[in-house]
Amino acid sequence: MSAFLSILLLLATSAGPNLAVPGQAAVVRPLVEPAARCSASPRLVVAITAFTPPRQGASTLVISVRTRDGRTTRLGEVGIYPHQPFTASLADARRFGFAMPRRMLGEDPSVTVAVEADGDAAGARAVVGEARVTPAPQERCQARRR
Question: Where are the beta strands (DSSP E) in 26-140?
């Protein structure tokens, strides 16, 4: 068995909070950079470190933010291209950025990544390496020191 298939098998059998499969979203606590707290337009950056497309059809990753009181805001969806399996270190992960409502930073948010597929979703999965909230690009914001 190839090393790549061994890794995919390990991912499939060790469903943890960072593994998204159809019907079960990954739930990750984002790391909030201090400068993001004073940003006028914070951004959520989600790093995907592994992906397996469904056996048939195409899939998308749906990114949402959920506050501790259960309110969910859908930030967007992305497709992995090319639509083929990959694994990567966190440094080489595929990253996707989304505008995040600033009000959500004070509400202890969690990030959900769901795999949706058109047609048969069997075999689809994604691993979230991290979620990070950063200040908007080119925004110079100094976090207040206490």
Answer: 26-28, 31-32, 43-52, 59-66, 72-78, 86-87, 94-99, 110-117, 125-134
pTM score of the predicted model: 0.82
Phi-psi sector, 76: left (phi>0), alpha (psi -120 to 50), beta: left
CA 106 to chain centre: 20
Cβ pair 50, 115 in contact under 8 A: no
Q: Tell whether the model's pLDDT for residue 65 goes beyond 90.
A: yes
Q: Residue ranges of the domains in the chain?
A: 3-134
Q: Distance between the two ends of the chain, CA-based, in angstroms?
A: 54
Cα–Cα distance, 103 to 100 (Å, whole number): 9
**What pLDDT, in 10s, does the model give residues 40-50?**
889 999 999 99
The domain 3-134 having CATH identifier 2.30.30: the answer here is no
Token pair 């069997």 in the structure block, residue:
122
Please state whether 61 falls in left (phi above 0), alpha (psi between -120 and 50) or beta: beta
